[in-house]
Amino acid sequence: MLIGPQNLMLHVNQVRSRIRDAAMAAGRDPATVTLVAVTKTQTAESARLAAIAGVTDFGENYLQEALAKMDRLTDLTLRWHFIGGIQSNKTRPIAERFDWVHGVDRLNIARRLSEQRPFHAPPLNVCLQVALDPEPTKGGVSPGDLADLAGHVAGLPRLKLRGLMCLPPPQESPEAQRAVFARLKVALQELNARGLKLDTLSMGMSADFESAIAEGATLVRIGTALFGPR
What we know:
By secondary structure, the chain is an alpha/beta fold. It has helices at 5-25, 44-52, 63-72, 91-97, 107-116, 143-154, 174-193, 209-214, 224-227; strands at residues 34-38, 57-60, 79-82, 100-104, 124-129, 159-165, 200-202, 219-222. It has one domain (5-16, 32-227): TIM Barrel, CATH 3.20.20.10. The protein contains nine helices and eight strands. Helix 4 crosses helix 5 (107-116).
């Protein structure tokens, strides 16, 4: 799909309108939902166009691609979210370069991110990925192990545990989508009842973000609805 300033601006405005409508339908302030543009496989030029259209938060899955893109866009004030699986030998550049990490599901990875986060930088914002419906190709901590992991990660000095993230399989209906997202919301509420102060639900993508917003999503990760199929 050919992306130019005009049609990307149109797509950004359309997605923002849908976010606003979904939030208002749920009785929420639309300002509580942040659009994270997922720019994996997109060029730095496409990300720049999205920034010109007003997007400030960008999500990347592939580290080397992300770093090259970030280097091309240093003149812009952007927030970068790493949303892919994390290998232990790649934690240092993630800790050094990103503002958010959405896919933490192991304590050893969290410890490495904390140890490698530069002291001149603010604490790294972290979401724990929860495997609500486990799939072999996707990561995530099991719901039964979530409280233990959250307690340990919350105590790491260079991280700020913000909330939870999920990547559920496609569902057959909006009602089924909402049922999955509601489980993540309940998990966050249960952690807060234990004394944590989490404020973030990273859930919802192009096919289901309105259902996620209805269940409390604060970060929605949108790629296809902005940039078209990869």
